[in-house]
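User: Design a sequence. Structure:
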């Protein structure tokens, strides 16, 4: 009874979704492309039998890319259907496609739209990345005999509380999954409590990503040419930059670098910096190297390795406001020490393990974080020890890609 009511609500909300897409499309034109796919209407030619992978946004798409690399080492001829929910995810996903692959929006979770999607593409099996479990989607796949798994799966305590509150929807949705491969034992416990069948705990796929060596070298070269320490605010989120700017007011002995998490906010953050009365230089305007300014803005996609190579220390975005924190694995793999705030519930175990390894330092507030970052950036021995600890931490936790690829191959064999 609950899922039909849920479906009616979603059907009634479709005009609001169209309005939201139009608004988002003003700053991100990708949201205005192939809009009817969101409602289960697909025009592109297709072939049945592909492996379908859903990666909702940028982070999930990058994790999917790591899994895809491992899958193609096993089966070079594998054909993929890649779906997304955000414009940045779809743009990143386009880089992963090969001849014979397809890409589309995952539809709004109404019975009609889901039916249109599955009837058009007829996937052999599906893999949802990390957290994307939808009641009508999982029910439809289960009913059609399409094995559907959740890979690199995580579930925060906050999300588990929400799942309990809506157990009439969430428990059947998790229960309809053919397999769940969790990042950590804690995630596995929560997912099982939510109703999922956990088939393995494989770790985080993002540990298997290799940083771009060229970007790292370029960033380190730029850093070596500067005569003062560089502190980066990595993957900063809305509300955090204003606090950061207040905390660094008058501090000109450090080069500050802000890399916003979401590209649609690049202009907004640059304006915040200018309004704070300090000079700003954006990566998009750099030539052979960074231009002189009080604050640099990293306004490019796909260059995090360059920024981590450029920075002496990174503050972890999303952790200084109650947003759950961003992923610190890439920073560790690049040998960039991390200072993180109190809010890391989205990546709790990775944050705890990084702190135990000496790759990251926990603080309670922005002011304390800046003091710790500046102290580490100015102390070569302290910084080198944290950098080496980060590299060792990242290396010690690799292997999820191979195990997940093997499990996906078994799923396809069904």
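Assistant: Done.
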């Amino acid at each position: 009874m609950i899922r039909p009511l849920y479906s009616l609500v979603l059907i009634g909300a479709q005009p609001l979704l169209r309005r939201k897409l139009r608004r988002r499309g003003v700053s991100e034109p990708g949201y205005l492309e192939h809009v009817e796919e969101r409602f289960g209407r697909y025009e592109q030619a297709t072939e049945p039998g592909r492996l379908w992978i859903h990666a909702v946004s940028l982070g999930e798409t990058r994790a999917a890319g790591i899994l895809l690399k491992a899958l193609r080492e096993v089966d070079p001829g594998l054909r993929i259907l890649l779906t997304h929910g955000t414009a940045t995810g779809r743009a990143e996903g386009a880089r992963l496609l090969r001849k014979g692959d397809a890409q589309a929006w995952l539809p709004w979770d109404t019975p009609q739209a889901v039916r249109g999607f599955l009837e058009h593409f007829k996937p052999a099996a599906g893999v949802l990345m990390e957290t994307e479990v939808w009641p009508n989607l999982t029910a439809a796949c289960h009913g059609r005999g399409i094995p559907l798994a959740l890979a690199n799966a995580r579930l925060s305590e906050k999300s588990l509380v929400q799942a309990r509150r809506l157990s009439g929807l969430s428990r059947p949705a998790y229960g309809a999954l053919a397999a769940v491969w969790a990042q950590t034992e804690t995630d596995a416990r929560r997912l099982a409590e939510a109703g999922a069948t956990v088939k393995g705990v494989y770790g985080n796929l993002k540990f298997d990503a290799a940083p771009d060596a060229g970007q790292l070298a370029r960033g380190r070269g730029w850093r070596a040419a500067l005569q003062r320490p560089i502190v980066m605010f990595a993957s900063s989120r809305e509300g955090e930059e204003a606090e950061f700017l207040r905390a660094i007011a008058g501090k000109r002995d450090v080069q500050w670098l802000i890399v916003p998490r979401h590209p649609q906010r690049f202009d907004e953050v640059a304006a915040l910096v200018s309004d704070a009365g300090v000079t700003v230089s954006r990566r998009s305007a750099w030539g052979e190297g960074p231009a002189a300014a009080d604050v640099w803005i990293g306004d490019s996609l796909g260059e995090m390795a360059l920024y981590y190579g450029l920075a002496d220390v990174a503050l972890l975005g999303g952790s200084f406001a109650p947003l759950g924190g961003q992923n610190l694995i890439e920073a560790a793999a690049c040998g960039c020490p991390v200072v993180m705030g109190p809010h890391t519930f989205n990546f709790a175990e990775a944050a705890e393990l990084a702190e135990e390894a000496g790759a990251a330092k926990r603080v309670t507030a922005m002011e304390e974080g800046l003091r710790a970052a500046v102290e580490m950036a100015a102390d070569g021995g302290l910084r080198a020890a944290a950098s080496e600890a980060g590299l060792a931490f990242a290396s010690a936790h690799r292997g999820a890609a191979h195990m997940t690829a093997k499990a996906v191959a078994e799923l396809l064999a069904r």
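The chain has a mean pLDDT of 95. DSSP finds 18 helices and 14 strands in the chain.
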